[in-house]
């Protein structure tokens, strides 16, 4: 079990033993994991990975879950070929590593993915979800890209966007009450700023007793008291997407 005091403990619960039902494709200058439902659809969700990158089984599991709910799901490599963080890496180098992977510099990749979804998959409505680093990227994109109908930021690193809250489309924010990386004071401030500045629908929800990474944690390691909140978080995410896409 990972040490929850680490700077960004997305690996709590370890990786799922999961291979994925989709396929890897080339999308412009980046690679992506794509999974499609059996029935045709014009709705898609972009899934933005955490620090462990686009090949993490946990994230692909969530992408496939979206597919079973009727969406085309695509998880692109937003690190653009740079190495994902490894649990074995020295956390003393974490801040320097993060500086080369800026969640607010994801516009080019988002545009390429949107074009792929439109041209190759016939998609007309697109939402975006993201975890940790990807949650921060969601907040950035929801401030910048009007083509994304809605967003779900799952324990996103909100400290990187302290002064930016004018969201373009409805956005749902998921946080764990016991997240050592995102203090509740930050969440409270986010709610205050959104209330003052946001003109679209939004929701900020805190899940009792949950730590960072709880929504896409390995299922076998779920504590009995955590399981209902993990399932609730996933259900809330799907319901939000269904409402706005």
From TrEMBL:
UniProt similarity note: Belongs to the dienelactone hydrolase family.
Molecular function GO labels: hydrolase activity
Keyword ATP-binding: no
Domain Dienelactone hydrolase: 30-244
Keywords (A to Z) from UniProt: Cytoplasm
PANTHER family: CARBOXYMETHYLENEBUTENOLIDASE HOMOLOG (PTHR46812:SF3)
The protein's name in its UniProt record: Carboxymethylenebutenolidase homolog
Source organism phylogeny: Eukaryota, Metazoa, Chordata, Craniata, Vertebrata
Pfam families, sorted: DLH
Subcellular compartments: Cytoplasm, Cytosol
Superkingdom, natural source: Eukaryota
Main location: cytoplasm
GO cellular component: cytosol
